[in-house]
Inverse folding.
């Protein structure tokens, strides 16, 4: 039963992610992204990462997506004109397929819940989800965490620059 739910939510997450890319209306695209975040939260729940699932809903599907929708409305983005498929969308779909294939290669032969890393059930029972997550995040994985924050900041700055160029 768990495998069926996992495959169903994984497939729906992929479909809604593709709709984020290919939907021409930016508000609809943002709404598809919210549904994709919900399916990802279900996947986190199936992987027994309840804290991350709750953060996924509260932070990403709630706060950040409200910020994105507010930004779309403030920038007054119109529906994209009909035309041929953009090169960036094709690159996005190819990157999504590569990521999906990587995940399948890692997951084949290991079982559904085998990708746990150093986090074990005993560790979770002893310290709790938040303590284990914060310990790994701020010790072993501090460099990827900081790199992700720099990448997100660069993305925000790039979005502001692109938005200012269109308005001028």
């Amino acid at each position: 039963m768990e495998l069926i739910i996992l495959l169903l939510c994984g497939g729906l997450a992929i479909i809604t992610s593709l709709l984020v890319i290919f939907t021409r209306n930016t508000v609809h695209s943002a709404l598809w992204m919210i549904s994709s975040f919900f399916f990802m939260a279900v996947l986190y729940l199936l992987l027994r990462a309840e804290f991350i699932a709750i953060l996924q809903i509260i932070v990403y599907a709630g706060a950040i997506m409200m910020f994105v929708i507010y930004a779309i409305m403030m920038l007054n983005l119109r529906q994209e004109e009909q035309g041929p498929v953009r090169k960036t969308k094709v690159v996005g779909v190819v990157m999504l397929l590569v990521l999906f294939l990587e995940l399948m290669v890692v997951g084949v032969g290991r079982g559904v819940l085998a990708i746990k890393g150093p986090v074990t059930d005993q560790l979770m029972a002893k310290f709790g989800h938040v303590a284990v997550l914060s310990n790994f995040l701020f010790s072993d994985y501090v460099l990827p965490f900081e790199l992700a924050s720099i990448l997100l900041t660069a993305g925000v700055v790039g979005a502001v620059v692109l938005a200012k160029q269109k308005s001028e």
